[in-house]
Amino acid sequence: MKQDFPQYGIAALCGLFGKTRHAYYDALWRKEGNLVKEDVILQEIIEIRKDLPRLGTRKLHHVLQKKLETHEISFGRDYLFDLLSEHRLLIRQRKRKAITTDSRHWMRKYSNLVKDIDVIRPEQVWVSDITYIRLINQWGYLSLITDAYSRKIMGYCFRQDLAAEGCIDALKMALNNRLYKDVIIHHSDRGSQYCSHNYVDLLLKNGIGISMTENGDPYENALAERVNGIIKTEFNLYSSSLGFEQTGKQISQSIKSYNELRPHASCDYLTPMQAHLRSGKLNKRWKNYHKSFTFENTSV
Fold this sequence. Notes:
By secondary structure, this protein is α/β, with parallel strands linked by helices. The chain folds into two domains: about 10-85, no CATH class; about 125-275, Nucleotidyltransferase, domain 5 (2-Layer Sandwich). The chain is built from ten helices and five strands. Strand 2 and strand 3 (about 155-160) form a beta hairpin. It is elongated and about 90 Å long. One of its GO terms (biological process) is DNA integration. It holds the Pfam family rve. One of its GO terms (molecular function) is nucleic acid binding. This is IS3 family transposase.
């Protein structure tokens, strides 16, 4: 038989724990409010990751704070980490790598001009590199030129081979996208593509200084390597089943989203497009986190 509990049952139960009925209902209201807050945050995360599919939690927290001001919702980074973990939305990092650089060639190699330089304006230093993308039955190779100050990708080219023409096409795009006429230093590894006559000739004709890594150490071109990693990791481009042409279109859209939407902790949480319109020192908003973190150890 169904038993009807008297109305004072809740009051008696609260009394056992030293709580009032108001405190009990207040806790229920808070719980309901937290569920609504959580749902709003998750919906915004889904929208952001349509364009930035693997954006890390710290940068996601920065973007969400601005978007949720109109909802009068605020939350800390630890709350967001817990929420993403609960819903299996944390980003796992991948390991690399294939070799795209051949520096064992006879062509002239240049000195490193940027190892002690203080980058204080856009289009002061450009960094270049090539990365690979696994397709169904082949490899695709993406050449990138990135502005060291703003982290803006100035030029790119996706090809089915490692010929110098891909790097040359990326450089031509970067030159067409210039906003300033100040002197530029172009920094790269010692790969044959960057030492080729046609590539060097294009740099010299445009009055661009030539700088290269000296010891084969990837840390001498760490920024270019890092941007490669962001494009592949955060935009799901380690591999593609779309075919070469469709993958090329996906790369173009990813670079557009990267330039226009993705904030950089090393650029005061500005997007590359925003930072490219600034000059002077930009605040570094990232911290060195413990190596014990297995997710999202990002600093760019």
